[in-house]
Amino acid sequence: MPTAPALSPSAISPNSAVQSSPPKTASVPLPGSQPAKSAMSLKIYISGKFYDKEDAKISVYDHGLLYGDGIFEGMRSYAGKIFRLKAHLDRLWDSARAIWLEIPMTKDELAKVVNDTLALNGIKDGYIRLVVTRGAGALGLDPNRCSNPQVIVIADHIQMYPKEMYENGLSIITASTIRNHSAALSPRIKSLNYLNNIMAKIEGLQAGCVEALMLNAKGEVAECTGDNIFIVRKGVLQTPPIDAGILEGITRDAVLDIAGELKIPVQQIPLVRHDIFIADECFLTGSAAEIIPVVKLDNRVIGDGRPGPLTRRLTERFHQLTRE
Ligand SMILES: Cc1ncc(COP(=O)(O)O)c(C=O)c1O
Questions:
Q1: Is 50 exceeded by the pLDDT of residue 3?
Q2: Whole-angstrom Cα distance, residue 193 to residue 197?
């Protein structure tokens, strides 16, 4: 890890960390101009300017860091086009509304920044992380003392799960950490506070699994740490409803749309672990993972232990959709 340069005391004031050392800014290229070369540092957008990755910093007084007070989105671009950008922006604005956070720009302005960030970095097939923090404030919780929400856009190349995991399917466990209770912190808010998911992720990793299933306080299936879950049982596609306490995944929505188009019967119904044990097929959905089969839960083999035909059909159509 490179050591951070020491900041002078005068640099430690709200929102000054970035401005304190003059940033190297980059202008957005005109359409058709040369994209950034891959050897060049990634350009990261923070509240109105582009910075080299090494210089892309925000204040340590930002409540996004101090309290996880902020929201985010993770999106994919395919051949230079962001998949369901509008849905991601709508969800970001919904998350903001739920936590009384005002995003200091319009959806159209942010959409332009997202596209500019991709173009500036010459990224066609990549992953885009949008972050809006509460901004720098005082050390107390009071968000009214944070004056300047920071809007961050990072476009990078995606680290997908290895190909074999898509071909053979995942083995996952059920985490003992339950999903946040909706009445405490709704999983529908994509907040910067992901400790709930991280605790479950660690449990999964300690068991040698890249994903872990999370149950809600009623013991029903909610979702995985960073993905929604589906099963197939006797030709019917089933997934927990939103009120099971899950993120309304955009890939989940896309799969439901595809199922409608392919006339596959769908049920959004409460599920328990037993339903997954006896399912014919199981898969997870997420912007980063896309659609990934699951063949084992808590050491019980699902179906015949191989990715199923409906999972494959939905995946094929999903890949087409991302290119349309
Ligand atoms: C907890 C959780 N559930 C589900 C998902 C999948 O959502 P999406 O398909 O919108 O990426 C994510 C993705 O970030 C997530 O963090």
A1: no
A2: 9
Q: What is the pLDDT of residue 226?
A: 97
In the reported structure, the alpha carbon of residue 222 is separated from the centroid of ligand 1 by a whole-number distance in angstroms of: 12
Taking CA atoms only, the protein residue closest to ligand 1 atom 1 is 226
CA distances 108 to 3, 23, 90, 124, 133, Å, are 37, 26, 11, 20, 19
Residue nearest to atom 16 of ligand 1 (CA): 226
| 135 pocket-lining for ligand 1 (C-beta < 6 Å) | no
**Are 315 and 283 in the same domain?**
yes
User: Is any atom of ligand 1 closer than 6 Å to the C-beta of 197?
Assistant: yes
pLDDT value of position 16: 30
Two structure tokens written together for 41:
């540092």
Residue where one domain finishes, among candidates 156, 176, 193? 156
Q: Which of 190, 201, 234, 296 is catalytic?
A: 190
> Which DSSP string corresponds to 14-61?
TTHHHHHS-----PPPPTTSPPPPTTSPPEEEETTEEEEGGG----TT
Does ligand 1 lie within 6 Å of residue 285's CB atom? yes
Tokens of 136: 């720098």
Q: How far is the CA of 247 from the centre of ligand 1 (A)?
A: 6
- Is 190 assigned a catalytic role? yes
Instruction: Tell me the pLDDT of the chain averaged across its residues.
Output: 90
Please indicate, yes or no, whether residues 192 and 115 belong to a single structural domain of this protein.
no
Regarding whether 287 and 241 lie in a shared domain, the answer is: yes
Q: Tell me, what amino acid is at 30?
A: L
| Residue 95: domain span | 9-156
198 lies in the same domain as 276: yes
Digit-coded pLDDT (tens) for 32-90: 333 444 467 999 999 999 999 999 999 999 999 999 999 999 999 999 999 999 999 99
Q: Which of 247, 292, 318, 321 should be mutated for ligand 1, with most atoms under 8 A from CB?
A: 247
pTM of the model: 0.88
Task: Please identify, by atom number, the ligand 1 atom nearest to the C-alpha of residue 288.
Answer: 11
pLDDT digits (tens, 9 = 90+) for 242-257: 999 999 999 999 999 9
> Can you give the CATH number for the domain in which 293 is found?
3.20.10.10
